[in-house]
Amino acid sequence: MNRRARRAALIALAGAVAACALALWLAWTRPAGGRAARPPYAAVRVPVGATFAEVCDTLRARGLARHPLLLRAAARLSGRDRRLRAGVHMVPRGLSPRDLLGLLVEGRAAPVRVVLPEGLVAREIAARVAEAIGGDAADFLDAADERARAGVLARGLLPRARAARLDALTAASAAAPHRWRWCEGYLAPDTYFLAPGLPAQAAARAIVDAGLDRADSLARGLAPSLVELGLSPHDVVTLASIVETETSRPRERPLVAAVYANRLRREWRLEADPTVAYALGKQGERLYWRDLDVDSPFNTYRVAGLPPAPICNPGAAALRAAARPDPACDALFFVADGQGGHVFSRTRAAHEAAVRLYRARRAKEGGLVPPAR
Fold this sequence. Notes:
With 373 residues, the protein is mainly alpha-helical. The chain is built from 14 helices and 6 strands.
């Protein structure tokens, strides 16, 4: 090949390289064209510990990455494939690979919305929080216990003389079907927005402090009848946790609280089924007569007075009802009416009649009949 031919070949090669480089540059930097997509954004969750390849697969499957191989190669060559930000990213559709990589590595992930409904127990709340922030549920519970114990004592929600009993309860219940924890009752049900990767201590502080604030406010609004009984704010949270598990009807909450307050005043056992279910770890399950004999400080069929601590995390409505039971209610008994509500009775005879009616209705429908209170 003569000199002129070699020069032409080199020029052609240089042109091809330049054309490839230009094509790669345009693919790397140019946004996707065409018709605007609806919706213009897509929420992409990047779990803690996810690999860049896994995220690229998600982006490609959702039509957000036009050149996934180019995206992965650029991330690998630049070392940014190990700098992903965990969390939920709002990704605009049509981003160039360059901008998409910048968003995943340098952009701020949106906080995760965590809904904690009323009536959950501590372990259920911990599981939801851990899933949202990408942490460990046990770490959250340990941090929440420490925060709750310190807060309860610092705010005077519980006499210090009783703290030792609860400390002993945490140790004694470690091998029980349901372990009691200091944070039980103080994980305030609400909607939270937590940052992915948030340390367990920070998440626990946000949720427990909200619960402590609610309990603290109870001391300023306790009904005189509860003050006469000598109930502490911690006791009222405990009563509210029982109310929360007994009824979801707003009208009935102050009535249920009144029944239990009336029993406390007469020094009767509360005989609350949810406390037995808590002791056995059988929330939402059928209770049998033999279950009522379980040896537990939470078994209000055997132990007089309130249980030593809350059995769930009550909502604001249950807390208000527990702090202000219906003063006009003199009922001492209640039983389900088979239609989602309850029948409240002042005398045992009236209660037994209501129980027979309920059992007859359930037997006719072929339903299960729980113990009556």
